[in-house]
Specification:
By secondary structure, the chain is an alpha/beta fold. The protein contains six helices and seven strands, in the order H-E-E-E-H-H-E-H-E-H-E-E-H. It is elongated and about 75 Å long.
């Protein structure tokens, strides 16, 4: 009788583990399909010419591209700019995005004290597969406080080097903090590696713009 009981238990044990593997495979497949379903469309970076300045005055216009916020709102830059001045933090790597967490409260504080000011955080990322785009979005949502999700615009593009060319940035090694007017004309830009000195520089520039 004992031999018979053991022989009956072995198949059940194998079936149990096979069932566990099948369930895990199904769950992974479901997650990947969900990630693909929420993937943000890719965009191209396009150059536009300034139209509000006259004569020989130099102008750099924030390049045109589209993305999607962490609240699932499709957004096109610089069309979305709707305040007198706009702060835009542009990051190029995962490490930059982690560092941007220090900038977000500072920019929110400045916006709270200046009604004519708004801000965005743009991860400007090379084009990747739909599944990877979806997973990246989920990861970024988990990293950033939900209070800032509407300000974070995920952008995936095949030609992000155009952004460097327009803005006069040498490479993708350092994130950038840009202030533009409502038309997207660049007024001020600094390297956005977070430090007290750079925070002071930003505060001083905002105070200058608003005559504080």
């Amino acid at each position: 009788m004992e031999q018979g009981s053991k022989s009956k238990l072995n198949p059940k044990s194998r079936q149990f583990w096979i069932g566990i593997v099948v369930v895990l495979v199904v769950l992974v497949a479901a997650v990947l399909l969900y990630a693909a379903s929420i993937a943000i469309d890719t965009s191209s970076v396009e150059v536009a010419e300034c139209i509000s300045l006259e004569g020989n005055e130099e102008c750099i216009l924030f390049p045109t591209f589209s993305g999607e916020s962490l609240t699932d709102v499709e957004t096109t830059f610089p069309d979305v700019f709707s305040t007198e001045y706009v702060m835009t933090l542009v990051v190029f790597t995962r490490e930059h995005q982690e560092e941007s967490l220090s900038w977000l409260p500072i920019m929110q504080e400045l916006v709270d004290s200046h009604p004519g000011l708004s801000f965005y955080d743009i991860p400007l990322t090379p084009d990747i597969s739909a599944i990877a785009r979806g997973m990246s979005k989920l990861g970024t949502k988990g990293m950033i406080d939900s209070a800032y999700h509407a300000n974070v615009i995920m952008v995936y593009t095949e030609n992000r080097e155009v952004f460097l060319e327009v803005m006069g940035i040498p490479d993708f090694e350092i994130p950038q903090l840009v202030i533009t007017n409502m038309a997207g004309e660049v007024i001020w830009r600094i390297d956005a590696l977070y430090s007290e000195e750079q925070v002071i520089a930003l505060r001083e520039q905002v105070a200058l713009l608003f005559g504080d």
